[in-house]
Amino acid sequence: MRPGQIAIHASLLLLSFLFLFPLVLLVSASLSSETDISRYGFTLVPRRVTFDAYQYVLQEPSQILTAYAVTITVTAIGTAAGVLVMALLAYPLSRPDFSWRRPLSFVVFFTLLFSGGLVPLYILVTHYLQINNTLWALILPYLVMPWYVFLLRAYFAGLPRELIDAAKVDGAGEWRIFFQIVVPLSRPALATIALFCALTYWNDWYLALLFINNPALVPLQYLLYQISTNIQTLQTSSQAFGVTIPALSAQMAIAVLAIGPITLAFLAVQKHFVSGITLGGVKGD
Amino acid sequence: MNIPSLLGAKRSPVVSAIVLQRERWRLANANTKRDVALLMMMLPGLLVLFVFAYLPMFGIIIAFKDYRAYQGVLGSQWVGLKNFQYLFGTDDARRIVVNTLAMNALFIVSVLVVALAIALLLKEVQGSSRWLSKFYQSTLFFPYLFSYVIINYFVFALLNTSNGFVNHTLEAVGVHPVNWYQSAQSWPVILTLVTVWKNAGFWSIVYLAGIIAINPEYYEAATIDGASRWRQMWRITLPLLKPLIVINLLLSIGRIFYADFGLFYQVTRNAPELYPTTDVIDTYVYRTLTTIGDVGMASAAGTFQAVVGFFLVLLSNWLVRRTEPQSAIF
Predict the structure, then answer these.
(1) What is the reported pLDDT for B8?
(2) Is position B242 within any domain?
(3) Which end of chain B has less Cβ packing within 10 Å, N or C?
(4) What is the DSSP string of B29-50?
């Protein structure tokens, strides 16, 4: 290694450490006792490791479990339905022989350029559709993301035409061609889109902030938001047990529980993330 | 396909005309069948777009009405530009527009510079250790996965007044602790750092992909000519990366009128003391709609954003088309 390269490695290592720093702080706080946090503040390494915060959080787990269930349901349904609906929307737009290709591409594309904004959406959902306080309000608004539709369209357009033509000669209908030829061939692209959809749903708190006030339908991220704005949520429930309130460390423990699955998922499928980014970032059309 | 040639020469012109006609019908029929099947596929998606994208677009008429929930959107009274007059009569309008533009400009430049720097560094170590360069990429991309709710927890661990890491460190070196969540002037820097931390890794992967796509022969030739690494970066990598940089810049400028709601709402903990620097159009619309309940003002601000934003997107695309025709989005 040249000396220049060693310097570059050193600076990248330093940068990586800086990027991980807040995460380490958070995990450390979740493993600290409340008294240590108030005495020494947030530290990189806990003075004494204790699982009190996790024990506390999980001793009355119904709220967190409900939130987990809501998030998992929304993520699973939203991702599966979203990928299917977007793929079905994208595929005809990739077919040069489809008569409505140009006008309908524009219909999808225009939503990228212009949007009505928050107020009309809010009134539509709460006043006209009246799906606030239902799971629909957490799923439907993100179901079709035009940018991903165009990524899928570009991918489908790159599939060999001969396969589709051959299937047609054999008398296969359009739906059969889609499900038996196009979908299996497009697995990498669909997996990448599914990954980003799942991330969007898993991380969403915005739709809940707007449309949910039924505690049974609060997703994980929104629960975390409520906890951070209102530590009362924890304190009132803990008074019933007559224990000391590990407020800060408990908050951090819940945050760690929320990012755990995403971290594991990321480590498992990193490759797809990177290919997804370069798919969308470099080639926009 | 040359249909008459299939019919043989013996048939009379009338018969062949009829056969030709039938063949045309058959083809037209097949085309219609195909189009209908493909349209049916698109139906669910188009329906979602119609309800959640197009209906709200028509909803911008709310900004020109005195909206009353019991009268509905269509039944409410038209009031012309009154909502806009109210909005621009307040000091808020100037503040939220200036904050949105200034903060976004800060973010665009900072993320670009840091992401490019990381990409260039990553390029230099690409060959030396696969494992390490994977590790850097993953680590630097990692923050992109977190929602702003989670990021709020991170920032709170660093900045909270009594036991945050930053204040404890300041105290340890004898500096007075700062009440971060009440000092508005610090937040342009704090939010820029957060944005860079969250997004630089993502964009560095995009730029690194652009760098890897550069033909290695350029570098080989430059090395033979004795050009230093530093010189190669300035003379080869950056010039060849310029189109990608320009496009990303222009696309971000097209979105400069839209703020990242989560960043400004969650990370600041929506602290009113911070509004002088952190209140942006999106947080203003949200607050005006849900907390204050002033639909008129909120929709005026939202419509103003949508219209200006639309023209900025058109403008940026026009500029992309002029600089890099193949990269224009439309």
Answers:
(1) 52
(2) yes
(3) N
(4) HHHHHHHHHHHHHHHHHHHHHI
- pLDDT higher than 90, residue B161: no
The CATH number given to whatever domain includes residue A182 is 1.10.3720.10
DSSP state of A183: H
**Residue A164 counted as domain residue:** yes
Structure confidence at residue B154 as a pLDDT band (50, 70, 90) = very high
- Closest residue in chain B to residue A205, using alpha carbons only: B149
In Å, how far is B11's CA from the nearest CA of chain A? Answer: 28
The answer to the question of residue A42 being in a domain is no
* Co-location of B21 and B142 in the same domain: no
The reply to whether B19 and B113 lie within a common domain is no
Let me know whether B238 and B116 are in one domain: yes
Query: Rounded to an integer, what distance in angstroms lies between the CA atom of residue B21 and that of residue A232?
Result: 79
Instruction: Provide the shortest C-alpha distance from residue A252 to chain B (in Å).
Output: 7
As for how many domains chain B has, the answer is 2
- Cβ pair B149:A228 closer than 8 A: yes
Residue B228 lies in a domain: yes
Has residue A250 been placed in a domain? yes
Chain A residues with CB inside 8 Å of B245's CB? none
What pLDDT band is residue B10 in, cutting at 50, 70 and 90?
low
Chain A partners within 8 Å of B244 (Cβ): 282
Task: Point out which residues pair with B78 in neighbouring strands.
Answer: B65
CA of B13 vs chain A CAs: smallest distance (Å)? 30
- CA atoms within 13 A of residue B116's CA, in its CB half-sphere: 19
Please tell me which residue, A175 or B128, carries the higher pLDDT value.
Answer: A175
Read off the pLDDT of each residue in A168-180 and give the average, rounded to a whole number. 91
C-beta atoms of B286 and A118 within 8 A: yes
Judged by a CB distance cut-off of 8 A, whether residue A172 touches chain B is: no
Tokens linked to A211 = 């449309």
Domain extent, residue B217, equals 103-278
Which segments within B170-261 are labelled E, that is strand? none
Interface of B with A in 149-208 (CB under 8 A): 149-150, 152-158, 162-165, 167-168, 197, 201-203, 205-206
Number of structural domains (chain A) is 1
Contacts of B47 in chain A (CB under 8 A): none
CATH code (residue B265) = 1.10.3720.10
Residue A199 located in a structural domain: yes
Helical pair A220-229 and A187-203, crossing angle rounded to 10 deg? 30
Which pair of tokens denotes residue B320?
A: 């992309």
Mutation for testing the A interface, residue in B31, B35, B42 having most A CBs under 10 Å: B42
Is any Cβ of chain A less than 8 angstroms from the Cβ of B139? yes
| ipTM here | 0.88
- Do residues A52 and A33 touch, judged by C-beta distance below 8 A? yes
User: Nearest 5°: phi and psi at A145?
Assistant: -110, 110
Of B278, B298, B322, the position where a domain reaches its end is: B278
Beta bridge partners of B77: B66
Per-residue pLDDT band at A250 (split at 50, 70, 90): confident
Determine whether the interchain pair A23/B42 forms a contact, defined as Cβ–Cβ distance below 8 Å: no
Select the more confidently predicted residue: B22 or A275.
Answer: B22
Q: Is B78 inside a domain boundary?
A: no
